Structures are given as structure tokens and as C-alpha cells.
């Protein structure tokens, strides 16, 4: 009985253990199946991948937002964009320059009237400029050859670099030629009508018109006639403009008897312009722009050269002034001339109070003309003998003086500090006219030889560029590359009125400052 009970308890405990063992080992299997089904590609793989891709996109967007918020990155991108634009601009400009150069070389063959290089250039005052040496074109040679240029003047226009675009030359047949800087003839016309005959051009001046790209040219002639022409540019295409001319007036010298016109000058008073003409007898006639006579005056000695915009002039032994309001003259003798007599003058390009000239004896002189029309003083500063054959012509550019005769052109330095103080000039170099002609005419030197020796070469400039007439219708153009001395502070003239005025202001300030201290102490 006891054995059966023990056996029953053993069986009961064994069954309970088996039940607990089943309940303990059975749960892991369903759990593993669930996990397996969770990673089964056929069931939930798409949702897992989509979740990862969304998280990746969010991560990239976050990085881009951070980069866009970085100022260095933004600045770098802007600079890179600007560099790309600049590279594109440089490429376009290079193509444009090549196009312009090709058209510039082809232009004289395509256009009968030689055009200028720009239609937007403002017309400037009449100036004579020095150009780089170069051979004239065949067109220029054929039109200007066999004629002797008797007067030359730089004409009105300037290009975008500030250089004169044209210069005008008048000859002994009364014709006027307007040249380009390249030497080509841009314009050629007769100053007189067919019914009027002709007369050589003996004087010329040009000045700025009130209209853009337009200038006025005034010519004086051997028969005493003064003519005015209007020269202007018109646009003929996208890149070229042509030159036109029109005669607008004819001035008659009162009671001149057909005397030759020697000097023409333009004087500006505000917006008004007056034209001063001097004939061979020394009579000064002032014209308005419309051709009417403003007034006349006759000095005791004929004027040789006028100082621009100051109405002062030099004569053979003295100086004079003209009051434009009353047309009264004032004259005085130059100190130091003694028995000398000047034949020609030209004013210095830098210091307009200095003038260089020749005497009848062939001496080179330097004269000072100081003051204004009411109170002026003339004094001979230096004189030196020249070993040059007559006749001679001279002209001044910035820092230098050029003298030419039938054989050569001589260049003197007048800008160095030593020679400015001593009043002298220094010889630099000389060039023969034969060498100049042979440098670009080659086979035609013999044709010019006889004609060249019959006349004095003319020189014209705007104080930087030079135009030399070589005879027989040939003109040489040069651009000056000579160094120019600039005055330092210690070279200032300490006796100038400006210095005295500054000292006066300092003394007045010192006096009133001390006076104020005295009054303050007494009070």
C-alpha cells in the first residue's frame, strides 16, 4: 500500500515535471518563427528599405542645408561664377579686337572717303600733334605729290585714347588736305570756288564747334581773304564714320588792299569766340564767328607771335598787348635786345612765358614775356650763335625745341633743370631731311631733292606730336618718346607772387593772434 502510494506520488511529480518542461521549451519556437517572418524578404523587406532610403535622403538634405548656411561656401561659389563670366568676357573682347584690326587694315581699300575709327569721339580744340613715323599710303602720295605744302595745322578730332585723329595741310594752290594718323587722305577740297580763282594758304587755325564731332577751320590766304569751313563726322556704319566739309563764311580784311594773312588766332571769351587776323603790314583785325568785324588795331611794329588766351604778342624788338573791350594797344621794348631784331618766335610748350626765336643775324634767342594786358614786361634772357644755314624754321614740343632748315632738323633740350636756370638750350641730336625722306620714300628721293632745296620745311605741333613738311608735297609725322624733366620742389621760383601771398597770410594770422592775447590779458 505504501509502495503504491510512493509510486503514485512519483508518477505525479514526474508528470508535473514533464508538463513544466514542455511549457519551458515550447515558447522559443513560435518566437523564432516570428523573427524569421519579420526579416523575410517576401513580407516586410520593402518597408525596411524605404525607411532606410528616407532616412538617407533626410541626411543628405541636412548636409546640403548646412553647406548652404556656410558663408565661405557661398562666397566660393560666387567667385567661381564671376571667374567664369570674366573668362567669357575676355574671350569676346579678344574676338572683337581681332575683328577691328582686320577691318582697320581693310578699310582704306573698301571706303573711298577714309573713315575714322570711332563715331563717338568728341571734337576738341585745334591742336597739332606729333605722330609715329610711317610711310604714307599710295593714295596719300598720289594726291599730295607735286604740290608744296605751305601751311599745316592739326585738325579737330580726337579718338578715345586722347590722340588727334586728323591734321590739315594747305598748299600753294589753295587746296586743303585732311589726313588720318595713318597718312591716308580723309578729305581733299578746294578752298576757293572755280569762279573765284585760287590763292595759296598762308595761315590756318581750327577750333572746337558747339556741336559734337564738329570743328571749324579758318584759312588765311596770300590775297588777304579769310575763309571758314565746317568739318564734321557722320556715321556710315556700325563701326566707321566719314568726314564731310562745308564752306560757311568768307571774311574780308577791311582796307587791307589784298595784303597777305600771316597770323590767325582764336580767342575765347566765355562761350564767344573771336578770330584774330594779322596781315603783312601788321594790322590786327578781330572778327566775330559770323564774319563781322569786331574791331581793328595797328601796332607800331607787326606782331610775330601771339600768346594764347592772353592777348599778348611779341614783335621784332619788343612786346605788346591788346585790350579786347576797347581795342586799344599797349607796347613796350624788350630789355637786352640792343641792336638785335627778331625775325620769328615760338612760345615754349610748358612755360608759356618763355619764347624762342631767331634774329636777323641768325642767333637763337630766348625771351621772357611776363604779366597781363595791363602790365607786362619783356626781357631777353639768352642769345647764342647757330651754325645753321638760312632760312630756318622752329617749333616747340613738350620739353624740346626743334629747328629745321633746308638740310636737317636739329633737336634741343630745354627741360632739364640746369638749362632752365641758366636760360640756355642743349643740343641733343640732328637728322638730315634726306635720311627722313629715304626712310619711307626709298626710290623717290631724287624726285624730292630739287623741290626740297627750294623752300624751308614747315613744322607744326600740338607740343607733343610733330608734323614736318619735307617739300614736294611730302609730310612726315612723328610721336615724341623723349623724356621730359619735371620740376622738383626745390626748383620753384621763390620770388613768385604766390609765395609772397602765403607769407602775408601767415604774418596776418600771427599778428591778430598776438593782438587777441594782449586784449585778453588787459581785460
Automatic annotation (TrEMBL):
Coiled-coil intervals: 76-103
- The portions of this protein that span the membrane are 492-513
The leader peptide range reads 1-23
UniProt biased composition (Basic and acidic residues): 119-142
Family matches, as SUPFAM superfamilies: NHL repeat (SSF101898)
Question: Region entry Disordered: which residue ranges?
Answer: 108-156
**Keywords in alphabetical order:** Coiled coil, Membrane, Signal, Transmembrane, Transmembrane helix
Which superkingdom heads the taxonomic lineage of this protein's source?
Answer: Eukaryota
Is ATP-binding found in the keyword set? no
- Indicate what this protein is called per its UniProt record: Membrane protein
Q: Give the source lineage, highest ranks first.
A: Eukaryota, Viridiplantae, Streptophyta, Embryophyta, Tracheophyta
